[in-house]
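call fold(seq) -> tokens
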Amino acid sequence: MLDHFSLLDLNKLVKATLDKTLAPSYWVVAEIAELRVNQNGHCYLELVEKEENRILAKSRATIWSYTYRNLSLWFEKMTGETLKSGLKILCNVQVQYHEIYGLSFNIKDIDANFTLGERERKRQEVLNRLESDGVVDMNKAQHLGRVISNMAIISSPAAAGYEDFMNQLVNNSYGYEFKVRLFKATMQGDGAPESIVNALHTIHNSSELFDAIVIIRGGGSKLDLDCFDDYELNFNACQIPVPIITGIGHERDESILDLIAFKSLKTPTAVAEWVINKSLDYESELLSKLKELLRTSSFILKQKENHLNSLKNKILNGTYNNLIKNRHRLDQLTSQVIGGTQNYLTSQRQQLTLMGSKIEYLDPNSVLKRGYTMTTKNGRSITTENVKEGDIIETRTLSSILKSEIKDILATDEEN
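ret:
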């Protein structure tokens, strides 16, 4: 009969050989495929190694309750994440073999720095890919107006962050009014990136023109916020032709979406305050410019008033001086006219007097008084042409009229 082992003996041999051959513990890199904690506080895991989606290795692992309590709290404090499926870890394991339960690992410790580095490595890969695609700075290059009055909001309507944002925006102490439109999306978990991308596409295809897209949610663990490091989400967000403002609600770390967004703020409330303050800054600037305009206008008007007063004074003074000068000239002309008129009148009066004397001297009565006579024929003076022999002529003296008949006309020496 051939030599043989019982199953128990073989398993004991395997256990003894492993205990003798293997080191007390090993640091192993693996991904948590499954994780559950039973009612006693023991944590049971399934660790795997993958190449793309193909599983290369798989092992069971255990973290006993007395270790799991402290180790899980410390890990979450260091990384901001809880131990869960899908997380790649560097763990210190003790290889154990049990005659009944077979091979398993007892996890004694986990290196949190590895998980942080692995998470950062994935983030850096996404950033490098976005930069290689030439899109990483595209949203930052978008133009944002001085005032944000119309916003597209991507959020879950049930999120406390969305409620905080709306309360802050609507109840602002300055009375500013803002137009907002909510585009619903899942804001955490595996379905969040696709949900947010769909909201971005809906906004882009909308006929409404938005000043900005605001992406907000409440706080959460680092693992809850890993969806905002998704490549497809950020690739689409980079290329949306509207400035993106994020208020995802984490105080310490920045997601990739924060890094590629036009503006990143820590919380939804901070986003609302920033939007309100932009309106306040713009209003303050307008008021300042208005005051400066009023000061400048007042100064210019005062200058013009002074100039007009100066011109008025010059005109008044010039007019007064001209009036005085012209009055003197008018007085001189008046004196000259009056003097000239008086002289002319005197001269004419003298002429009239002289002519009056001549007229009076030549008056027939004056001539008759001086002893002369006047001889006429039919009331006309006598000339050799208008008298002939036999004509009756009248000779007037001062006191009588003598009628005579011409008997003969004799020529005088002058006529000879």
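The CA atoms of residues 76 and 82 lie 5 Å apart.
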